[in-house]
Specification:
11 helices, 266 residues, mainly alpha
Length: 266
């Protein structure tokens, strides 16, 4: 990774069977009426998945990461006969900072954001605006602890809310009917990364089911309720967030896709 110009953080690495940006893009596209098995829609979906999962994931991991922010830079300077690059000079300290973990994070993050903005600009102006929002959220939440509300909320938006909106945008128009489920799952993702995740997860579960009931989709509400029942039991039992995420991930992913399909615009 140190030798590459940009290290892409593909969020599907590891356990893909839980809600992630790639699945949120697919869910948004389904809610907007996309047909993933149709070649034209499949190609567009792959492009959006790469943008939201790989490039947005890199921007968030590099510009919004807490480890690099607190790691500090490299001490010392560069041996050079030029006086403005001697150890201790401003230029030497600048180059040393660039070689340190924080400097590399900012440098690679800026490159990732530039690539993301370029690709989003080829898609549409709204995709460009969403990508800019990801960059702003990453920078604003940089170095913040999970106890502060901004960081978990930003994490939820980058992981689910904004990718869902991106998928909806390419295949349909934004509206409360296809964005309210995204808001509910954004609350779920934010609660998982936050300090009050048990209360937030419960509220998110209720919001998801209540929306389907309000949409007069009783079968969908019942099915999604059954999918959310095991995670809710684990929350009540006091399962900690990392273990809960591993256990409940597939159930939440199924609920994500089922909710999107239920509210699908034909």
């Amino acid at each position: 990774m140190d030798d590459s110009l940009i290290g892409l953080r593909v969020w599907l690495a590891g356990n893909p069977w839980r809600p992630r940006p790639a699945w949120a893009v697919v869910a948004g596209a389904l809610a907007a009426g996309a047909v993933p098995w149709r070649q034209q829609d499949a190609v567009a979906l792959l492009l959006l998945v790469f943008l939201a999962d790989a490039l947005w994931g890199s921007v968030w991991g590099l510009l919004g990461g807490r480890a690099a922010f607190f790691a500090g830079g490299v001490n010392g300077g560069f041996a050079s006969p030029l006086p403005y690059t001697q150890p201790g000079s401003p230029a030497a300290r600048w180059f040393a900072w660039l070689q340190g973990p924080e400097g590399r994070a900012w440098r690679d993050g800026a490159v990732a954001l530039a690539w993301a903005l370029f690709l989003a600009g080829l898609v549409s102006a709204k995709a460009l605006a969403l990508t800019g929002t990801v960059g702003i959220l990453a920078i604003l939440s940089r170095g913040r602890a999970t106890e502060q509300p901004l960081r978990p909320l930003a994490a939820g938006l980058v992981a689910l809310g904004l990718p869902w909106a991106l998928g909806v945008h390419l295949f349909g128009a934004w509206g409360w009917r296809n964005l309210l489920p995204a808001a509910s799952f954004t609350l779920l993702a934010a609660s998982i990364h936050g300090s009050v995740f048990r209360f937030g997860v419960g509220v998110a579960h209720i919001a998801i089911i209540a929306f389907l009931v309000w949409e007069r989709l009783p079968l969908a509400a019942g099915g999604v309720g059954l999918l959310l029942w095991p995670p809710m039991l684990w929350v009540v039992q006091g399962v900690e967030s990392p273990l809960l995420l591993r256990r409940a991930g597939p159930w939440w992913l199924a609920a994500l896709l089922a909710s999107a399909w239920a509210t699908r615009s034909f």
